[in-house]
């Protein structure tokens, strides 16, 4: 496990906010950015997990209990970032909810939960982050999308819609803030294996598991998205994030697709 001891690193002096920071790719990203010397703002809903990760990463990691789907919660979190650091160099919109479900069985709550987390969340966080990125003289926003925008999978209507909307958001913000040196990258991420990663959210689809999982297996969907190497690691996803934010300021990466094969 990495520990940010305040030493050097290619991201020393940078302030990075990571949503969904306590599990899966978000956890690996937070650890990697801390290891590279950044001050890392950890945003997630779970208080205990946040506290544990703060302790692991050291004094330059700041945990903020945040529900990205709640505008007031997001506003309060970024106000705290501004009060402590006065700037933000990178926002990693990693938080997301993947809940496969037959379309006609979707409840109102299942629809709203995904829309709030996957689409409204990044809208709220980007809006709150822009003034802090501007204060830093520019920076990066990385929005985590999914291969579901490139392929059509069953039981993914709402998830696909939210991720397509997220990609449209990235395109619009990239143009709007380009002259202010605020770069927006869409990261189309395949299946990543790690703490909270992998195909488990397909396999465990609650009351819909008996419908979802057998069809995905029978049609070869799982094998196709995981690839012959069994999926990439969350640590390799973190590598890509570091690569993006360390590009020369004159270089802009609009869309990156990272996956196993």
TrEMBL record:
CDD domains: SDR_c. One of its GO terms (molecular function) is oxidoreductase activity. Keywords: Oxidoreductase. It holds the Pfam family adh_short. This is SDR family oxidoreductase. Belongs to the short-chain dehydrogenases/reductases (SDR) family. InterPro entries: NAD(P)-bd_dom_sf (IPR036291), SDR_fam (IPR002347).
